[in-house]
Each structure stands twice: as C-alpha cells, then as structure tokens.
Amino acid sequence: MARNRDAADKSTQPGNGEANAAPTRAIVVVPVLTRPVATDETSRPRLTRSPQARHDEAVGLTRAIALDPVHSLVVTVNDPRPGTLLGSGKVAEIADLVRESEAELVIVDHPLTPVQQRNLEKEMNVKVLDRTGLILEIFGERARTKEGTLQVELAHLNYQKGRLVRSWTHLERQRGGAGFLGGPGETQIEADRRILQDKIVKLKRELETVRRTRDLHRAKRKKVPFPVVAIVGYTNAGKSTLFNRLTGAGVLAEDMLFATLDPTLRRLRLPHGTPVILSDTVGFISDLPTHLVAAFRATLEEVVEADLVLHLRDISDPDTAAQAEDVERILADLGVDATDDRRVIEVWNKIDLLDEANRERLLGAARRDRRHGPVAISAISGEGLDSLFAVVEEYVSGELAELTVTLAPAELAHVDWLYRNGDVISRTDNENGGVTLVLRATESAREEIRSRLGGGSAKESPDE
C-alpha cells in the first residue's frame, strides 16, 4: 500500500507548499455473485446481504484508511472467471474508469486469488487490492501497541506468502548453485518464501511470549476473582462508545469501521457494589481473513476466558441480522456458543436512531423476557443502561433478594460496606445503640454479609 501513496507523498516534500498529502484516489468494485462458491462445505447457509449494504460497507472500509473512493460500483457476476473473477467487458469498463478518474488503486470487495489479482492489475494497469488485503491494511494502520503490531505483521506475512505463487514473473529467475554438486540453485520465489517463513517463525515466537504474558495477567486476575465481561460485536456497532460510557475511559470512538483495534481492559463497579473487569475487543466483520483470526487469537482469548460476553448489535442497521450471524460464526470458531444465554447477553444498541414504531416494538420485545431476552440501550444517550447494569449484575452475582441485617454496637463498622454493596430500603436505630437495616443485595453480596457477620445477624425476607 505504501507504494501506492508515493505519488501523493511527493506533495509533502519541501517546496510544494502543501501541508498534507492528497489521499490516494481509489475505485471500489463490489462483485455480487449470483451463485456464491462455498468456501466451507460444512458451513450453514448465510443470510443474504443486500448489494447496497455490501456497497456501503466496502466504501466505509475504503475511507477507514483515508483513501478517496472517487467511483464505486456494484457488479453482478453470473459466471466467475478463474483468471479475473469479472467478465472481460466489465474489466475493460473499469479500466476506462481508472484512466478517466486518474485512480491509483482499485479495491475489489471480494477475496482474489494471486492469479486473479495479477491479471486484473495487468488489464487495468493499476494496483489492485482485494477485501482481505484492504482489511489487513486497515488493521496495520490502526495497531498501536506492540502486540497489535506483531499480530498484524504476522497476518500480513501469511497473506503475502500465499501471493508468491506465479504472481510475478521476476520470481521465476534462478540463482546459481553452490559447489560442483549443486543443482540450478533456488529460484527467487523460493528465496522470498524462505525469507517470509523465517520472519513468520520469529513473529510467532514473539507472540508466544505475549500469550504467556497474557496468561500471567489472567492468573493474577483470578487470584482477585473479579468476573470478566467482554464486549464483542460487528465493527461500528458502538462497542467503544459503550465502553467509554460505562468506564469513563478515553478509547477512540468514531463513526468509522475499525476505529479501534487494540483491546482495552478497565475495572468497573456495578450499582450494587459488584466489581468486574470490562474488556473492549476488536470489531468483527464478515469474511474476516483467517490470517487475522489466527494472528489475533492471543487477543481474542480475552473473549474465550470471559465470564460473560455482551454481544452488541447496531439494531438500527438494516443488515443487523446478517451482522449478528457473522459475529456468531467467529465466536463459534473461538469456541464460544453465542446461543448460550447463561454466558452471552445480546445487547441492542442505537435505539435512539429508530423511528417511534420500531422503537416501541423492540423495547416491548426486550421487556417481555428481561432475564434471557435482549437488552435495548443507547450508548450515546445512556438510555437502557440501568437495565443493562441490572442484567449483568444478576448474571455475575446472582439475583437480588431482600435481606434484614441487625448490627450490634460493636458491628457498626460494617454499615458503610453495606451501603456500598446493597440498596438500603430502611434503617432503624435500636435502643441498645445498634441498627437494623433492610436492604436488597445480590447473591454474592448476601454470602459476603453472612460471612462478615457470622450468619446470625442477617436474615433473608420470606418470599411474598
């Protein structure tokens, strides 16, 4: 990608008088296959995405790394060509668009084989990037921590390794062999592949060190047993906005695909005093490259190890059902069953963007089954967060119940803790200087109260 920005970068040289380089001009092509070829024979049929939704997402991905999509088009592909994916007429049409718009890059929102990529570049006389390559570029630009950089670099190298198969003719040259018994020597393609493999092995060693460090951090957290709550969801579902709203963290939150990449963890105290660790993770996307899933496994293990997973959905998006299915597929690849309502809560975000009729319908559905149904919220306005807090606390600490606690004068030091870890409904000051409190507390808090007071001074109220 850096090569494609060379022309634009020249504008930043001294004497040009421009403060910023012009963005690379790109044409976005969205192939819609009428008979999609299944890449996984065991996978279940996917929900059909509208061409417009795929188009909008492809343009959004392009803009996510400051490219300028000067033209975009949806192309129906009835018969995918092995050599170019697209038909010869459509390839020629796009080549004309490249010349007319002076584009420097063509984005094809579909995985391309190395041969298809090479042939399209030859026919259009411009650099071509497929969906996998574009997502890798975005992740490469978003990575901020050493861990994120390593993971993206590993995914890049695995992607490039697959491109070294008849991709460039200069790789067919051979170098001379060593010694009299040596053969014709290794070809340039073999040398490049060996160099890439050496780098991959080195990066895997470094990431193994990262994985061991994460394991140590998890082990330390388990010694202080705070439940871990992970937020997952399709990219741009509002994960970072919700994370910031709940924790006060300063994680970047913008209306942009993959605005944040590196995971963030913060401690959060729920309304009834339950402490949890909240984890913000990288956004998921349809057809997420397998290279990335493998490279980011160390990061995504935070989701696997989480006690509770919040599956955040942009309920205002017309494609929300298909997005949810994509997230569920990736979670399944990680070993997390998204249908397990004992561990996964579905959260419907952005209800503030709904019209009144849809809003009431969704809120009604959410209210009918608060325990196992979805929780409707707006991370921007804060609407519904009280319900989300209540459901999360019930999941990690048990149901709320009423408790009557009688404290002797010598036990009054516990009053402050009781106020911080329960909802005090009433307080009675006794004649002997003690106090009787009626409060609502979670199951774990009730157990802690009995442990602190020896059990005799704390009695649960009978069911009404």
Automatic annotation (TrEMBL):
Gene3D superfamilies assigned: 6.10.250.2860, GTPase HflX, N-terminal domain, P-loop containing nucleotide triphosphate hydrolases
Subcellular location: Cytoplasm
Nucleotide-binding is among the record's keywords: yes
Superkingdom assignment: Bacteria
Complexes and interactors: Monomer. Associates with the 50S ribosomal subunit.
PANTHER family in the record: GTP-BINDING PROTEIN 6-RELATED, GTP-BINDING PROTEIN HFLX
Protein name as it appears in the record: GTPase HflX
Organism: Aquamicrobium ahrensii
High-level lineage: Bacteria, Pseudomonadati, Pseudomonadota, Alphaproteobacteria, Hyphomicrobiales
